[in-house]
Records
---
Amino acid sequence: MKQIRTICLASCLLLALSCQEPKVAGTIGADAEVERRVDSLLSRMTLSEKIGQMNQVSAGGEVSNYADALRKGQVGSILNEVDPVKVNEFQRISVEESRLGIPLLVARDVIHGFHTVFPIPLGLASTFDPALVEEGARVAAVEATGQGVRWTFSPMLDIARDPRWGRIAEGSGEDPWLDARMAEAMVYGYQGRQLDATSMAACIKHFAGYGAAEGGRDYNSTFLTERQLRNVYLPPFEAAVKAGAMTLMTSFNDNDGVPSTGNVFLVKDVLRGEWGFDGLVVTDWNSMGEMINHGFGENRKDVAQKSLEACVDMDMMTYGYLSHLEELVRSGAVKESDIDQAVRNILRVKFLLGLFEDPYVDVEAGKTVQYAPEHLAAAQKTAEESAILLKNDGILPLDPASVRNILVTGPLADAPHDQLGTWVFDGEPAHTVTPLRALQERFPGKVTYVPGLVFSRERKARFDDVVAAARRADVVLAFLGEEAILSGEAHSLADLNLKGSQSELLAALHATGKPVVATVMAGRPLTIERDLPHCRALLYAFHPGTMGGPALANLLLGDVNPSGKAPVTFLRTVGQVPLYYSHTMTGRPYNGETLLDDIPLSAGQTSLGNTSYYLDYGAYPLFPFGYGLSYTTFAYSDITLDQETYPTDGTVKVTFTLANTGKRSGTEVVQVYVRDLVGSITRPVKELKHFERITLDPGESRTVSVGIPVQDLAFVGLDGVKKVEPGEFQLWVAGDSASGTPVTFEVR
Ligand code: GLC
């Protein structure tokens, strides 16, 4: 036995000392032929040429500025060039004028559409419709590859539970299960179910824990335990790796003192070693260099070495690899075999994308796919499904026949740039159809437009013009929210109320006595409690993209019934951060205890508190995760399990009846949550384990069965091993995370 253990120890040591391919099979779908080609090319490369492949530069200006570096093979990838003629010139020099003719990987942040802009990713998640999201990612890939882009820095998988963080806009919200399904959808959509010339390598980012930035301040440190990482923040990445994501990007943050770009545990041990990821790992913009700022490295040579030791393959914009790796190899500080492994990962992606067969883009053909009608239709359908109806006293849907004079107002009513949202490089505002335009086209001569405020941050004391117009209108449609600049990277906010004088505008409109419907377009869940009394209905659209106008018009007029659900908790006040549905129970769970407003002003001590909540705002959200209304109503009944007890390798089969108890056809996002009542560590009060969209006609009911594999309830417990722990569980089937009555089962 001793002999076997020694051999095991030796091979683990070998693995631990280098970035050698783990014994686990690869994940990005390369076959023996691709591996043969990779090894053959690698064997002909000089050390300098290998290091050149590990260098990514942001292209800007004239191609000639880069020609010398390209000819020397010092660039493996460029980002930020989307002129197909220039892209072809970049490729031509690389392929025809360098010694080995290795094509470039051309990258771009295609985050929620290329030219045709879809709702921001938080809005994509609101659809709870992976198939539709995959379709949208496919559209983005067809348009982007049509201009030479073959690598996108998307999807972002960062779990976000702090809406102060501006990049909450860019991910799929607070829940790992929803995030993972959205990640898979976007990976399949970008790359295609079969690789071809429209395949665009996905890049899952930012690895890892970036969304837990302390204070919600972007780039700030995070302090996630390994268990929290493994149970909440890493599962979406693992799902995306299993879906075949070809690349991954490290994150800016240091977690528990270690910046991700130099984090051996995250990248080498977990991503490479445990998951067997053999795709390309790229740093985030200068995140290698920023490890000097973090105080994690002395200089660029030091941080270059630390990045390679973490098995990071490509350096975005630090030039650390290009400047120092050759010297580090010569000095014996790093092994050329680790450079070989990085270059293999890069070449593997290039071979899989077919770049060696055809590195060029058909410029004329690429023009024909931009803003194609079917692309715009997909964007509109996605915007329709992503909007969340948060309040409706019955004023919606508006009756088109009764419309004589609509007042359209607010800073987002006709904001073609801001409606597109954050992280839009190539979507052109000229193509945006705003709500104003959509309504004017729908009701020519019946729409009055008085913005009231031109920008979301604008402050005004009086609204005489818009109030006068409201008095003459039958109904007031107020489009409020955030300018695009208020969310996204580096755009964190400490105050989540509607900016500027928007709330005052809404109150002034409400004071006229006319019916007011508010639509909010934003990059995050804003704290809108104070605005709710001033509107009869409120539709929430996370920046809905190019076709947001027609989509919102169809929703407001009832051509489409809202089905969006909150992918993130809506807070009552920013002081409740962080507040999310899958919290732990604590020893003193909040149970709706008395709030300050509920007690009379009086002298003397009044017993208050004693549980985990805020005396002034409690610990319930304004709207919970998974919440969203419809123009119809749904009822759940007869929720039953096929067994009382399940083995750890079993499947819990839950059957229930869903009925449309209203007067309109509608789509319900059915959600299944599970709670592990007792564990070796404390567990969340519930976790989403399944969702599906079910469309029913008025009066229709359907009996549905759902299988939940017991293995989906596994978690990393006290012993650090991911497994299902036997015991009692609860299961809910409901339309949001705060509703329903649980049924129980046991795992033995
Ligand atoms: C940025 C972002 C990253 C993006 C990259 C390239 O700073 O953090 O998400 O893909 O730079 O633009």
Note: The longest strand covers residues 666-676.
---
Amino acid sequence: MIEALRKRIDEAAQVVIFTGAGISTESGIPDFRSPGGVWTRYAPIYFNEFVASAESRREAWRRKFELDETLLTARPNKGHRAIARLAHIGKVRHVITQNIDNLHQDSGLSENQVIELHGNGTYATCLDCGARHELEAIKAAFLLDEEPPVCRLCGGIVKSATISFGQAMPEEPMRRAREATLACDLFLAVGSSLQVYPAAGFPILARRNGADLVILNREPTPLDDIASLVIHEEIGAVLAQVARLNDH
Ligand code: NAD
Ligand code: ZN
């Protein structure tokens, strides 16, 4: 199986890697479905509630700071490093990720190489003017009076730079992801249950466009049937071998 994946990567001209929460579990960040995880403990706060109500914003920031300890201290694992190596040698030009943990960038990929479909949880932005705000300063102020932050430049609402339920998908990353998907001849989906749309539409688009589709995930996914190779194994071990990380 691993040998088959390695061969496909060797033979491909342009590989796109598509990642989900599964690639980051080995860094200690729980995936979506883990029992007891924060994701299952709270009902999601929808985007329109966040915008409409200061109380919802207060609750969103409380939860965010509860979650952040894990998110902000996590380090890239073998899987991220293997992908960075494949990018470094020119095999992989783009990584499309559903993750918000910044670990692909932390493993050495540039902003141009990473396409974030669901935003980034390691900083915040103003919903009106787009200015970036750092979490540390927001947290220090929030802990004093629990007032939800506003933009110092324009007075707009400041929100974690992630895409919430009910929030429009970010246009530019969606456009870039589509372009990368149509340009590749091998699309490798790693650590995603492939159930969240529109993100899960990209492997389907790749397949329709004639690319080879390979899925690496511990559990079966609804797209296993249309893949040409499916590997139900642990991500770090498989990718490290594929990228020959152990040889160096
Ligand atoms: P998911 O939780 O739906 O699916 C993850 C898949 O990875 C599961 O099928 C699981 O079996 C598999 N997996 C987990 N660890 C693995 C390992 N070590 N080896 C092999 N397989 C492994 O995740 P998703 O498809 O990305 O969708 C969840 C949504 O939640 C995404 O939209 C994402 O934005 C968000 N989310 C992000 C993070 C993060 O940034 N790290 C974490 C949790 C959720
Ligand atoms: Zn602003």
Note: The first strand starts at residue 15 and ends at 19.
